[in-house]
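User: For a benchmark we're assembling, each entry needs the component sequences followed by a predicted structure for the full assembly. Here are entry 17's components. Please fill in the structure.
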Amino acid sequence: MSDSSSSFISNQVSDISPVQSSTTQSQRRGSSADQDDVILSIRSLCKSYFDAEILQDINLEINSGDFLVLVGPSGCGKSTLLSCIGGLTDVTSGEIFCRGKNITQLDPAKRDIAMVFQSYALFPNMTVAQNIGFGLEVRKVPAAERKQKIQQVAEILHLQPLLDRTPAQLSGGQRQRVAMGRALVRDPTLFLFDEPLSNLDAKLRLSMRTEIKHLHQRLGGTMVYVTHDQVEAMTLASKIMVLNQGRIQQFGSPEEVYKRPANTFVAEFMGSPAMNLIRAKVIVEAGAVKIQIHREDRAPLVFIEQAATDALRAFNNQSVIIGLRPESISDVAARDPQRSHSAECRIEYIEGIGSDVYATLKLGGSDVISRLHGDSNVSAGDRQQLHFDLSNISYFDPSSQLRI
Amino acid sequence: MHSTIKRPRHLSCLLYASLTLLAFFVLAPVLWLLLMSLSSPTDLTKVPLQWIPSQWDFSRYALLLDWQNGSGKRFLAAMLNSLIIATSASFIALVAGVLAAYAFSRRNASMLLMFAFLATIMMPPITYILPLYSAFSELGILNTKVSLIICYSAMLIPFAIWLMKTNIDVLPEEIEHAAMIEGAGTIYTLRKVVLPIILPAIGATAMLSFLTAWDEFFYALIFSSDLSAKTIPVAIADFSAGRVTDFGVIASVGVLASVPPVLIALFFQRFIVSGLVGGSVKG
Ligand SMILES: Nc1ncnc2c1ncn2[C@@H]1O[C@H](COP(=O)(O)OP(=O)(O)OP(=O)(O)O)[C@@H](O)[C@H]1O
Ligand SMILES: [Mg+2]
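Assistant: Structure for entry 17:
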């Protein structure tokens, strides 16, 4: 196990190169040596219940050791996708491959997948220890070994004192950890986690998150993980997939999804508070691209985009939507003065959260949240010199909502 | 269960009075049966009726439980037949019922088939008598326990399927999904997960099936003619049909014949507790 796991990890490191996705993926597909490395591959998967299309044209590929985090609003089809991968619901069309083998029609019991269900799905007639050891018992693992593994997992999940209880005698968070334990005790090809930490308190959640991260790095298992927690998504993922209404919005590294959202939906969905989307106008003047943002109380805010692409230039005299994260609008000077713009703005209202102060201003007709230093003593109505960090600015086409 | 809401006194009185009345209506005939079986023949024929026997007479029980004499042999053979037939038929109905119910509930077996099963119990038994009679006679199994076991299982299966299906339907499907993901096949999942959870329903179904089969009279009357297949309801009818003039004997047969069902009911009552699914799924 140890030598193969080290190879998983080195692989994973090579995956987090800044320019990945399409090019690296097509290269991978071409070479046969890497083919075994692809653990899960889904091609044009669709799933409908009667006439409701729940999943539409899902394509994805993850490699051994990958940690794919699935995010999306409630009801977008995340659990349904996990069910399809696990073989618990029939797919309407499309194919699922596991280690290069078509498993679309394979019995779930033969897929070698472990899953933590959103609803826990514990066996009510068994004790915690029996619940955790169920998969091992099915596989006829000797009792002594089984017991030892159950103990190990119980220790990680702080479940030792509860091993002899039945699920009915546990709290919600304890049940959730038993559900985790049932998956972690085995060593499957693929782990599926459906919001496995949603019911835990903040402290336990943090320690479990770290534990999962360690486990993943140590065992090098391949995981698909659903969560609504932004921090979980960013810290755990080696790849993030954003789903909305059954369609993939973006599939890439956490950094990519965070810094270069593919469309306005992803921009608003990832990050908390969300990315600010501001209406602006592009003006190309003597080769320089100027971005002009309307302000109600003063002259428009104008800055020069030095790294303008041709696509952006094509929007000359048209409006675009710009995306700026709250941390890119600050009272602290930007790192790169070349890609920074300063302006005085009126603060409409403020919210302090201790570490930071979120100040809301009006730009381009919408509320824009800026993130000020925690010690900032501005109050609502003040005028404040703000620094706009343009190094991670995004532009979107207002009609298609896609990234320019 | 402890009720936290205090009931007004007069309501409590009314409640207990109603319960006493109900208990009296239910228990009085049983009590009278018991008294009859223990009264001497003269007490039973006295006018006006002697309610409390002048002397306790256990002789009929001795007679009926003695394999050596005629009445005892007829009675004990019928008890044994009933026990074998009712147990076998219930067992077959349960096994078939659970498996079929699982197929209907979880494996998309055709509902049409399910309705066809249920339709068979809508028809009055008399419609089946003639075809069954000729079929059994053709097969040479008239007046055997097998013929009655076949009849009763056929009668009980639709009912067992229906009861089991309603109980499997309400189980959260994720529990079985979890078992499958863990690598368990259908039989393993059924045995280790589904059956233990629906044990109360199985207990209830087993009990009702057994009682239905134990009490069945019509098929038994037609298909059995001697000690090799006669069941207890038929035997009771025989006892009361003139051969015995002592009501006490008939009452004793009745008392003894209700012992197995009562024991079965007491035994299965332990399983009929609710709340076994508690804690398995969120919310
Ligand atoms: N058995 C079903 N029949 C019909 N529609 C279903 C069924 N199961 C799920 N759906 C629908 O499919 C959609 C996706 O459901 P799913 O459970 O995958 O959402 P989700 O992304 O996991 O949401 P959440 O974050 O709330 O768990 C929902 O709109 C739901 O109503
Ligand atoms: Mg879900």
